[in-house]
Please model this.
Amino acid sequence: MEACEQTESAVTAFAQTYLEEVEAIAARLDAGAIERMAAILTEVRDAGGRVFFLGVGGGAANASHAVNDFRKLAGIECYAPSDHMAELTARINDEGWDGCYAEWLRGSHICERDAVFVFSVGGGNLEKRVSVNLVESLKLAVRVRARVLGVVGRDGGYTAAAADACVIVPMISAESVTPHTEEFQTVVLHLLVSHPLLKQRETRWEQVR
Model:
């Protein structure tokens, strides 16, 4: 019985600590960077441009979520390479992982009217060979003068260095960088599609009375 109580107490303490970290991160997010994102995305939409959301793992899942919300609620033409598995896996098989997203963007004729929006924990790092496919995509975006945005963790990596606007999720705990970064990617994407500059349609449940 005593062992069970100790286990329950430890679990409760973990949950409380995690939620306190979430609160601390929310208080430290750069609202100015988010406002710059909203302005840039408005410019992209007004110019008839597209937004390409890029991520790997949880970032890819958040990219899919963003495509849905930005198309439906903000009226922006959006795509995520990771949603197109047949083409993406063909490119990986034939051309390799590192350039698969960049080649997908070339096939989509990315141009200066467009934007690349990265969801990543580390932001990509060429020297450490981490998320190289994101780095190669960003290099292409910069070359064609597309706008670059990102929500990333740690020090922001290559994404933060290349971005026109970037939110770096503050690192409160080294043990929870990944979950906190990925959860705040969804916070930022929902903030943006709810932003007065971007929102064009109401969400369904806000209309139900």
